[in-house]
Amino acid sequence: MIELLSKGAEAEIWKGKWLDLEAVFKVRKSKPWRHPRLDKMILETRTVKEAKIMYDAFNAGIDVPYIFDIDLQRYTIVMEYVRGVTLKNVLNKKEDKVYELCEELGKIAAKLHMRSIVHGDLTPANVIIRENGKLCLIDFGLANFSNRIEDMGVDLHLFLRALESSFALIAEKCFDSFVRGYAIMDGYKAVLEKVKEIRRRGRYVLERRLVAKL
Fold this sequence. Notes:
This protein is of the alpha+beta class. The chain has 2 domains: about 5-80, Phosphorylase Kinase, domain 1, CATH 3.30.200.20; about 85-214, Transferase(Phosphotransferase) domain 1 (Transferase(Phosphotransferase), domain 1, Orthogonal Bundle). Helices cover about 50% and strands about 20% of the residues. It is built from 6 helices and 10 strands; from the N terminus they run E-E-E-H-E-E-E-H-H-E-E-E-E-H-H-H. The strands form 3 sheets. It has a 5-stranded antiparallel β-sheet, with helices on one face. Strand 1 and strand 2 form a beta hairpin. Mean pLDDT is about 90; it is low at about 205-214.
């Protein structure tokens, strides 16, 4: 039996079996408005890149879903179904261990960035706490290879915005904990300064829009 877990603009996520193992099938979908050859090239390239980034993240000591198979004919990555709860779920319950988990996630983000990988969607919903308590990072669909401070800052800013929008009461303390973990990376202060700059840009744009409405 196969079950649809989620459906996004780029891919569908299905749960099923692969050689009697519980598995997730990430299937990228064709876009009818693209030229068929261009569509094929884009889907193949993105599928291979996501798998490569996950492999590099694993080699950097980061827990990611184990990849069982890559099917370039169907633009599909078959990977381990990770049992556990999301960090988002734990934050919703405001459990005591949330700050410790956020610090651990900061270390994970630092390891990614030291490997010149940016996740692209670093939010509590994309972190699963396994049944053994280990953090597993999922959904590398927007990930990229980059050593630009700007891109690393965007990763951290996305996480901070996710905290502020859904967990305002504990957002500051959670992000402080995250930064403590992230500080294992040389040059982390430059990334934090970039986060401040990105936030200033956002406020400036918002102020311009509000003034324009007056």
